[in-house]
Amino acid sequence: MNSHSASLLVIFGATGDLAQRMLLPSLHGLHRDGLLPESLKILGCARSELDAAGFRQQVGEAIARFTPAAERDEASIRGLLERIDYQSADAGDSASMTLLGARIEALRSGDLLYHLSTAPRFYGPICAALDRVGLTDAGTRVMLEKPIGHDFASSCAINEGVAAVFDESRIYRVDHYLGKEGVQNLLALRFGNALFEPLWNARHIEQVQITVAETVGVEGRAGYYDESGAMRDMVQNHLLQLLCLTAMEPPSQFDPSAVRNEKIKVLRSLRPIQGGDIATHSVAGQYGAGAVAGVAVPGYVEELGKASRTETFVGLRAHIDNWRWSGVPFYLRTGKRMPRRCTEIYLQFRSVPHSIFAQGGAQTMPNALVIHLQPEEHISLHLMNKTPGLDRAGLKLSQVALDLDLNDAFGRERRRTAYERLYVDAIEGNGTLFVRRDEVETAWHWVDDILAGWRESASGPKTYPAGTWGPSNAVTLTERHGHSWRE
After folding, report:
1. What is the distance, to the nearest Å, from the Cα of residue 249 to the centroid of all Cα atoms in its chain?
2. CB 420 within 8 A of CB 30
3. Are 139 and 268 members of one domain?
């Protein structure tokens, strides 16, 4: 543990859905494996009128519900609960914030980490209220959940509110995709091997596809989702972060400012999609009734209970106008109610310049590298191979995959959840895997152009049956350029 490890973690919104599903189970995993500083205390904070015993009971129930039985350990759950306290507070009520301030002062013995797991509109008011009670000194830092804003303007306003209290080096914006093992492995693959980096450019790569597909619908989040849609919920943060890590130049070293400096260059090189390009480079879809895994499911409008122009699918053809990637299309897509759940990055290399096997009728297919992030993390390199046989009518070729299955290779290593890694980094004061303000705002700027183009179009999102890969014009998006989605 370093000397700047936090002595107290204060979670605002500690009774909320994210805390129950992700945050508290992740803290249990870290406590069980001895990865939290021994002296660290955890203070849950929300508007709910609970006492400490009532909150501890909630924590126990959340861990029981969201942690696999094999990973639960009664002694470590008890140990975690001994670290935990609770204080009811409301940023708009100065008396309750004064009480919270006194509680924090009593519990802290060094650096202090706030995690704001609330609606983003409360970030500024919470930070201002903490400042008024004198709890934003140099030894404090703050974690913020996405989405930071609804568009460029609201993002700037929220960031300004937080920046009035905390300087940028103490603000840790969470994109939980950056905490995933496979996402960091993308950096190791690119920058730890001599094999790939010389080929990682427009001379050798024909196209890149980044897919985040979900089989689920909006579940209980229809109200939130109808306000945001797939573009704000997934593209502005997760997909653009994956694009940055795939496309960025090698940073000089693996530290927060070097990595983020290269990511922001990618975002600033994204060609705007506006005007006539809206129709040819972007697709919005909304799922109708259909079937996923053989089960009939209702359409988005039926689930929502009213008419809506909110997109549940986005397909984009993006271009990065720089030396490395000029002319290479980056196809991005994300959607709900897709045929299977997957998050993957697919890089298709250019074809061989001349096939010596064509006279015998053998077809070569381009090499491809596929980085699978969900549901399983593995990497496969697709290569041409001779099909076994005597080949009297000419040599035949087949594409085979060299697979690096990370579960096989590292079967004994426990897979860390994204929030376990992000919590350890934030507690220890390491910002590498968090998002800087200029990244958030530049991404919003690019996304806002597309959303504005959609608003001006009379048509609204195209319907696609649940259980399919999106509307038919998503296919056209790639095929008019001689490409096709990997399915």
Report:
1. 20
2. yes
3. no
**Distance between CA atoms of 253 and 4, rounded to whole angstroms?**
22
The answer to whether position 169 is within a domain reads no
Strand order in the sheet with 313-319: 397-405, 378-386, 368-374, 342-349, 205-213, 329-335, 313-319, 282-288, 462-465
DSSP-derived secondary structure letter, 411: T
Q: How many folded domains does the chain comprise?
A: 2
- Supply the residues annotated as catalytic: 238
Whether the link from the prior residue into 375 is cis, omega within 30° of 0, is yes
Do 331 and 206 lie in one domain? The reply is: yes
- What number is the average pLDDT over the span 20-35? 94
Q: Which of 249, 9, 243, 19 has its CA nearest to residue 142?
A: 9
CA distance 174 to 421: 11
Interval 187-207: pLDDT, tens: 888 999 999 999 999 999 999
Tokens matching residue 60: 């126990």
Its domain, for residue 324, covers 178-479
Cα 213 to Cα 91, 161, 410, 481, distances in angstroms: 37, 34, 26, 23
Each residue's pLDDT tens digit, 258-295:
889 999 999 999 999 999 999 999 999 999 999 998 99
CATH number at residue 41: 3.40.50.720
Give yes or no for a contact between 124 and 23, defined as CB atoms under 8 angstroms apart: no
What value does the mean pLDDT take over residues 358-374? 86
Pairing of strands 6-12, 41-46: parallel
CB 471, CB 463: distance < 8 Å = yes
**Is 167 part of a structural domain of the chain?**
no
